[in-house]
What does this fold into?
Amino acid sequence: MDPQTLPDLAAIRAAAARIAPHARRTPVLTSRSLDALAGCHLYFKCENLQRAGAFKFRGASNAVWSLDPASAARGVVTQSSGNHGAALALACRERGIAATVVVPANAPKVKLDAIAAFGARIVPCAVAQADRDRVTAQVLAEGGGCLVHPFDDGRVIAGQGTATLELLEQAPEIDTVITPVSGGGLLSGACLAGHGLRPDLRLFGAEPRGASDAHDGLRAGQRITGRVADTLCDGLRAELGRLTFPVLRQHLEAVLLVDDDATVAAMRLVFERLKLVVEPSAAIVLAAVLAEPARFAGRHVGLVLSGGNVDLDRLPWQAGGGPG
It folds into this structure.
């Protein structure tokens, strides 16, 4: 499919078939103690157990295996703070093609190590989105290759939508879905899959208060660009894309803002109650529910735990801890 075309439900189902030999069908877990704490029924879609440790492998795998042989032979270029880069590197390694990842200077070491371990070439850049875009364009101009954008790519959005497709198959009683929001690829896929199957499904994004461009832009009716994010959720510092913004405007009920302290507390709860390793960018969905119990009271809420790539030597509740 054209990278600049939004997928419909048929394209998401086609993506599910395409990535089935490569991606895991991740489990959905529940917890009575967390249900009691939240005042609703929670269903955790464990994308932290996905290959490469995050949902990003779905979109990356769909994009890489969608390439025709001539395009694949040119190699693939992307930009990423970590999880998408690692996922793309793994997908390219499995297809036997080259991968180059433009990585901002503040990317966590655990994610950089994963990108390198899967065999990609790493090109560093400054943190701002404009710098990421500039260096990515320079890499493409100098060496060629096929761009697979981390979220503003229809093939990637279709792949990410397969997580919600699975979730609703595994727990059909769900009436609400929440995912983290950064560039909007995961949440756009959830919207297109969710409302493609169930028009009455309630859909929310969870976003750090210190990186509220999606929340503010959707309220204002226009994309917000150029802000510097201030959050320990390293995977949630991007801004909405040209493809993802209109999808969220059409389908989303709200973006819920969450303080980093609440996200860290939720991350610890997931460690303690579910016995799962998740990163702050994943735990934010639980924090969003716990912050607004009246909104979700009695509902059946699907929470996409987006990833588990965290530096275990720098957990955020430890002295000297930080993002991961």
Summary: The chain has two domains: 9-54+153-305, 57-147. The radius of gyration is 18 Å. The domain at 9-54+153-305 is CATH 3.40.50.1100 (Rossmann fold).
